Backbone:
């Protein structure tokens, strides 16, 4: 090791020390100007030439201040004079490039003395990229600040070592705080007493579950006595792997949103009440119409005892349907599980057709029921499926005010049952077809617009569907499909 050190000393002494400094001067990564006491340039390195785009000859003998922006001349000159007094100085100025544009620079003046002659070394660093990055950062900050203002969002930062909270202006407005930095205890005093545990638990979980972002919603009692609803997000930032120092986050005033949601809920309740009232009227009117038609027949003198006995079950059926509908309204107030069982859809449709036969006669409509088999089992709530069929038949009768024919067919298609209702009424225009099934939309003068909505809901609950095909002046075909109860179906074949 001693031999190597001696060798290095010999090599160093063999070089001119000025050459070493000259080499470092030329290779220095920043632009360097050597200025005399009057600010004239006596020497500059290659980086100075590449930075400003001039040849070295242009610099030599000229004042460096001539290359600075006019607005920066006074600042540049005063800083240079301070450096001549023996103090290292820094200043940021714009300097002229050979192509005519200005370059943002940071100039460090380092005083030097050679043979009692004072010089100043001006080290110039190009700050263009840094300034652009800073400008983008400021723009991002401005956009973030503006976005927070629009969204009514404040930000905060808790120093977990001191329990001091730094609050933004919006944060102070939400909580009614007067200072930008306050103790955490003072912030917690603003939290509604019933919600205090929500806040403290959230803070504790955020500390324990770094770096998980936690959120909480709670109430704040403003200094003016009003209750504010606040939604907060927060997470702990780690400055080292061993210790967490700060909990940062945002706070949004959602008071208006909460009030709006409450108003909407009240509005929804009123709408539901109106819908239920209309639904009750719609679903009870069908069996009442049947009863009206049967009573009209019973009042005539043409009925014998046998016919009377035939119509009496239909009267009870209609009364049972009214009872069921009112019961359904009660179920909505206190939901109960639907009771389903295996039923023969052929029988269900046949009973509905018989039930509405009297009403069909009143409309001068011939009701034709054409089943293709004797037994097609489905798993269903029988009364609800009858309700769907009743709605469809009733609509068909009303679509033929001058009379006509309604054909009903039931058939099996693979693992499903298809029930088709085909009338030769006036049909439905295409524009109206697109809105069928929407709540309160109806093509009838006295309709509530809920019949198809309720029917679609029942079919959906049963895994079924409805399709409507119609042509103006030719009639309408309504097809409903329901899943076949395969266990029974297979045993039949």
Residues:
């Amino acid at each position: 090791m001693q031999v190597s050190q001696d060798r290095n000393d010999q090599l160093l002494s063999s070089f001119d020390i000025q050459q070493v400094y000259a080499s470092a001067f030329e290779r220095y990564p920043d632009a360097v100007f050597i200025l005399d006491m009057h600010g004239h340039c006596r020497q500059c390195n290659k980086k100075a030439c590449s930075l400003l785009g001039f040849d070295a000859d242009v610099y030599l003998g000229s004042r460096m201040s001539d290359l600075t922006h006019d607005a920066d001349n006074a600042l540049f000159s005063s800083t240079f004079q301070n450096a001549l007094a023996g103090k290292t100085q820094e200043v940021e100025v714009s300097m002229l490039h050979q192509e005519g544009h200005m370059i943002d620079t940071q100039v460090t003046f380092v005083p030097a003395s050679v043979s009692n002659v004072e010089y100043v070394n001006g080290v110039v660093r190009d700050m263009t990229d840094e300034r652009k990055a800073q400008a983008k950062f400021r723009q991002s900050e401005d956009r973030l600040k503006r976005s927070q203002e629009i969204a009514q969002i404040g930000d905060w930062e808790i120093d977990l070592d001191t329990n001091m909270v730094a609050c933004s202006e919006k944060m102070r407005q939400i909580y009614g705080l007067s200072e930008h930095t306050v103790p955490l205890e003072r912030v917690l005093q603003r939290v509604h007493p019933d919600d205090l545990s929500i806040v403290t638990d959230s803070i504790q979980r955020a500390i324990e579950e770094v770096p998980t972002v936690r959120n909480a919603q709670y109430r704040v009692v403003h200094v003016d006595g009003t209750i504010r609803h606040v939604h907060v997000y927060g997470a702990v930032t780690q400055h080292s792997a061993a210790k967490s120092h700060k909990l940062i986050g945002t706070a949004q005033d959602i008071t208006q949103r909460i009030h709006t949601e409450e108003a909407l809920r009240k509005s929804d309740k009123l709408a539901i009440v109106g819908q239920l009232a209309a639904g009750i009227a719609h679903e009870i009117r069908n069996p009442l119409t049947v009863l009206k038609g049967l009573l009209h027949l019973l009042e005539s003198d043409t009925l014998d005892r046998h016919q009377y006995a035939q119509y009496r079950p239909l009267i009870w059926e209609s009364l049972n349907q009214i009872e069921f509908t009112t019961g359904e309204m009660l179920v909505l107030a206190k939901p109960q599980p639907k009771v389903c069982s295996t039923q023969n859809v052929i029988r269900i449709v046949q009973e509905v057709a018989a039930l509405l036969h009297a009403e069909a006669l009143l409309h001068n409509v011939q009701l034709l029921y054409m089943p293709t088999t004797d037994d097609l089992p489905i798993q269903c709530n029988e009364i609800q499926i009858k309700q769907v069929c009743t709605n469809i038949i009733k609509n068909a009768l009303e679509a033929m005010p001058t009379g006509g024919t309604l054909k009903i067919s039931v058939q099996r298609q693979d693992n499903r049952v298809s029930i088709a209702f085909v009338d030769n009424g006036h049909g439905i225009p295409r524009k109206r077809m697109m809105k069928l099934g929407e709540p309160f939309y109806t093509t009838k003068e006295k309709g509530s617009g809920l019949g198809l909505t309720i029917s679609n809901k029942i079919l959906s609950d049963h895994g079924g569907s409805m399709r409507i095909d119609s042509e103006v002046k030719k009639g309408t075909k309504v097809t409903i499909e329901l899943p076949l109860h395969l266990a029974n179906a297979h045993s039949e074949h």
